[in-house]
Each structure stands twice: as structure tokens, then as C-alpha cells.
Write a structure and sequence with these properties.
single chain, alpha+beta, Rieske Iron-sulfur Protein, four-stranded antiparallel beta sheet, 3 helices, globular
Length: 160
């Protein structure tokens, strides 16, 4: 069967390669490619999501924004839903009090620190801040522990 539209095929192949190259270079975060269009509301300060502060240590997932929100030991974290190894989603294992990659079983502590598996770094953290009784997650700013360790370590909101 012949290709009826080779220009379209070439465009899609080139566009896919370009997107992959931009993700690999860190220009486009993986989570932005996985996020459905229209799920993030823009603001003058960029794309942000606001969440109520959890009353107790807990984990909640906003699938639309591809964000995991964690309250642990009087700190709040916002993580990318995807594992840094191969972009598979991670899940919370309540009985073990940890995250686990759904594809290759990499394991992470509640603060996103890598403990075992195929991944080679910690979970990616979004910029987060406390605003009165809310947590504000900046979806335009995220940090990788292997390329910006100081910003990654500072990407949490104190809750005390």
C-alpha cells in the first residue's frame, strides 16, 4: 500500500523527532507533553494550580495536571507524575509508604528521593509555595535533582 501523503508523514516524523530532542535536552519537560491540552489555567505568573493544604500527611494525584501533591513531615512537595527513568507513571504504595514506577519498579521515598530500581535520579519536583491556606504549584518550573540539586532540594513548602 502506497503512502497517499508523504509530506504529512515526513512532517509527523520530523516533529516527533524534534519533540523528543527537546525533551531529551530538557527544553520541554516530559510532563508538558503528557498533559492534556487545556488542563492548566494560565495566570500572569505562568501556569499554576492551587490546592488546599492537606490536614495530615497524605498523597493526592491530579491526573489532569500530571502532579502528585504530598504532605510529609510538615512539608509539601509537588512532583511530576512521571518517573524520571522512562516517563511511566508512578503510584503511591500506601502499605510501604513510598512511590513506585509502574514500568520498572523504581522506588522513591515520600520526599521523592530515589531508593532503588532502574531510575538514576530522584523524582522531578515542581516549584511550590504556600499562600495562606493553599498550596500553589507552578507547572512551568520544575527541577531535576541531577541538573539543579540546590533548586531541587529547595522545592518544597514548609507547613509549620
Amino acid at each position: 500500500m502506497s503512502d497517499r501523503n508523504p509530506a504529512r508523514r515526513d512532517f509527523l516524523r520530523t516533529g516527533g523527532c524534534l519533540a523528543l530532542a527537546l525533551v531529551s535536552a530538557g527544553v520541554i519537560p516530559r510532563v508538558l507533553l503528557a498533559r492534556p491540552l487545556g488542563s492548566v489555567v494560565g495566570s500572569p505568573r505562568g501556569a499554576e494550580r492551587t490546592y488546599p493544604i492537606p490536614a495530615t500527611d497524605s498523597v493526592s494525584i491530579d491526573r489532569d495536571a500530571q502532579v502528585i501533591l504530598v504532605r510529609s513531615q510538615n512539608r509539601a512537595f509537588a512532583f511530576a507524575l512521571s518517573c524520571p527513568h522512562q516517563n511511566a507513571s508512578v503510584k503511591w504504595i500506601d502499605k510501604d509508604h513510598r512511590f513506585q514506577c509502574t514500568r520498572h519498579d523504581s522506588k522513591y521515598q515520600p520526599d521523592g528521593v530515589y531508593t532503588s530500581g532502574r531510575a538514576t535520579r530522584n523524582m522531578d519536583r515542581f516549584a511550590i509555595r504556600r499562600d495562606a491556606a493553599s498550596l500553589v504549584v507552578n507547572l512551568d518550573r520544575f527541577f531535576k535533582s541531577d541538573t539543579d540539586a540546590a533548586a531541587w532540594a529547595a522545592a518544597f513548602a514548609p507547613l509549620t
